[in-house]
Amino acid sequence: MLSKDSIKKLIPKLVTTTVVVAASACAYLLYSRYQCAPWTRDGQVRADVVQIAPRVNGYLVKISVKDNQAVSKGDLLFQIDPSQYQLAVDQAEVSLIQAKQSVAQLEAAVRAAKAGVKQSEAAAISAKSQIDAAQAGVESANASVAEAESGVTSATAKIAQVKAQLAEAQREAERAQKLADSKAGSVQTAQAKAASVQAYQAEVDSANAGLAQAKSAVVQAQAAVREAKANLVIAENGLAEAEAGVLTANADLDQAKANLGEPGDANYRIQSANVQLEQAQLNLNWTSIYAPADGYISNMSLLGDTFVSAGTPFALFVDSSSFRVDAYFQETKLKHIQPGDEAIITLMSHHNQPLKAHVESIGYAINPPNLAQTDGPSNIVPTIQPTFEWIRLAQRVPVRIRFDNIPKDIHLVSGMTASIAIRK
After folding, report:
1. Which of 72, 224, 283, 350 has its Cβ near the most Cβ atoms within 10 Å?
2. pTM greater than 0.70 (yes/no)
3. Looking at the domain 36-53+316-423, which fold is it?
4. What does the pLDDT look like over 30-53, one tens digit per residue?
């Protein structure tokens, strides 16, 4: 057994050993928790901040908000004098009406040209039918000439035949008369022969009349031929004129179509006028500047009747739904962080009021200072300064933390300092 003196000497050693073991255990537990449940004091509150800049020039005639005022989506913030832009819309509407009228007139010209083509084609068809009729008339007249000439030939042959018979009858009548005068023949025979002469003479006269009529028919038929040929020439000239008219009408139609372009609303005149009207309406709409979302107006210093220029910002808009915390964790801790992990945010301004949150995402690019000129533009990729430059430190990577709920009594400002702990 130990003596009292030995026990007294042993107690300090036991106490020291116990304290060392407890401290070591606490240190191990804290280190393990630090490794498995990362935390950082390097966090900043961020929000989507948009510069408010007009899209058109003009004087401000209405300012509906004040600096740092809360606004709702769709609220009218600023109104630029719309007078000149309304006039531009009115002028564009007039130009559109004029363009439609111009297109309507050109379309009417195309329709008229098409009607002209149809009329010319109908005239050409009529001229062709007239040529056919004239050619038939020439053929008919030539046939009449041939027929009349045949009649002349027949009449001439008939006259020759009848004259021969008349001469024979005259010889027989003279002989019969001589016989009757000498009492060698009868008077009746002589009289019969004389009557036969008269009959043949009548036939000769009739044949001569027929010949004259046949010759007259030839003359008339030849005149008809000349007239038919003249009509044919007229018809051919009419066809040439009609075909020339068709060519002219088609050329007029092509020109009318070229002048028109696309018909209806597809016409470039109407499309151009519509574009001008849409642009004028856009400019008019842009004279009214509305809140793009729920948020706050910041850094505004404007007075009424101030001239503002397109693209020149004069205020900031902070989206109230976009507040989050960008927490910067060492790269060695990323294996213990996953999107969706529960997180606790402690704002420097409210250090006794931890806020529940969750990991939304982990960054994919950083820009260490020694690589800033080779690994991407520093104004896009975040450049995170190391704490010490004389030792090899783990790089810090941005992790986006999203608030689960923001109490109404907390006034968040983009740029505030925050501490973040990841819970596992």
Report:
1. 283
2. no
3. Elongation Factor Tu (Ef-tu); domain 3 (2.40.30)
4. 565 555 679 999 999 999 999 999
